[in-house]
Amino acid sequence: MSINVQNLVKRYGSLTVVHGISFDVGKGEFISLLGPSGCGKTTTLRCLAGLEDADGGVIQIDGRIVSAPEQDALVPAHQRQIGMVFQSYAIWPHMTVAGNVGFPLSIRGVPAADVAKQVDEALEIVGMRHLRERHPSQLSGGQQQRVALARAIVGRPRVLLFDEPLSNLDAKLREGTRIEIKRLQRELDVATVYVTHDQEEALSMSDRVVVMEHGRITQAGTPKELYRRPANRFVADFVGRASFIDVERGKGNGWSTPSGIALQLDDTGAPEAARYQAMLRPESVEIMPGANGRSEDGINVLEGRVLESHYLGAYTEYLVDASGTRVKVHSRSDFDIGDTVTLRFPQEFCRLVALADEARA
Question: Which of 20, 34, 119, 130 has a CA-to-CA distance to 326 between 20 and 30 Å?
Fold first, then answer.
């Protein structure tokens, strides 16, 4: 493994912000740490980079221990062979593009001729070589981000780290830069850890996603696994848009709503918990006019009334009051607020999720 983290702990005084988390990142693998503000994802990244000293656990990069407090082992940040892109870009305003990109090599004592060669190579990869003599004030936000990317990859690091690098860009630039980062990462074939609170970024870019909450790993898996089979309500709600219906065990292995409507769910691998809900993704729910769409057995069919309607171009998002809950539905059909409708959804897209906190990866 290019990165191996075992039981990482980080404290600030009496406050523990990272609670003994463990994960691996293989060579060429792209992993995102996803979670809300304050969940410990950036602190974890800074411990990997050597910008924060861990209080416990072991961090290895390419089999080399770079942090192990119990063993008094600590490798400084500049000796970890990492490239890092910060949220604020951290570009020196008084330096040219070439000076900024070459700075990490210069402080390592790399000869000037080699610095110039490696800077040109890095700038060529990000398409910025023709702007090597400009200063940051002469660049757009997207160009400054590419300078930060070039500085991260100069010298061909063994590991790439990204701390919410797209948060300062507008929507169009974010989409383009997202593609560029993934292209660079594939071309360099290096282990990459990407911190974000944006689930779209995490799902679209990552080989695996690690979801964090309160300094702990709640679930880890491929984007499809997390989206389709979240371990609990927190993951389901944070990774994508979803609606939730209270459910209880019916006769045999069946499930039903508190009002007695039978539901067929995907409960494969669901953890033991005190309470459960059924999760529905809005694109998986079929909406039909009137109350005439009920199937013969009435399973996975809800009748309701349209409460809200939001036109979003490719589809309209409806909020439907059905069986005592509010269900989001994405549809290209037209309905008016107040319309009576029927909702229908297949079993494989109705996922059982736990409300308790026991489900942890």
Answer: 34
**CA pair distance 56, 20, nearest whole angstrom:** 8
Burial class (CB within 10 angstroms; exposed 0-12, middle 13-18, buried 19+) of 86: middle
Nearest C-alpha neighbor of 352 from the set 278, 275, 261, 257: 278
Contact 229, 67 (CB under 8 A): no
**Alpha carbons 74 and 149: distance in angstroms, whole number:** 26
| Nearest one of 10, 24, 14 to 208, comparing CA atoms | 24
CA distance 317 to 299: 24
Q: Is the dihedral of CA 6, 204, 201, 353 positive or negative?
A: negative
What is d(CA 182, CA 50) in angstroms, rounded to the nearest whole number? 24
pLDDT digits (tens, 9 = 90+) for 19-67: 999 999 999 999 999 999 999 999 999 999 999 999 999 999 999 999 9
Domains and CATH numbers, the chain: 3-228 (3.40.50.300), 242-354 (2.40.50.140)
pLDDT 10s digits, 217-273:
999 999 999 999 998 899 999 998 999 999 988 766 688 888 888 889 998 888 788
pLDDT digits (tens, 9 = 90+) for 179-232: 888 988 998 899 999 999 999 999 999 999 999 999 999 999 999 999 999 988
Given CA atoms 35, 37, 38, 44 in this order, what sign does their dihedral have? positive
Contacts of 297 (CB under 8 A, 6+ apart): 262
Q: Name, in order, each residue with C-beta under 8 angstroms of 200's C-beta and a sequence gap of 6 or more.
A: none
Rounded to the nearest 5°, which phi and psi values hold at 201?
-60, -50
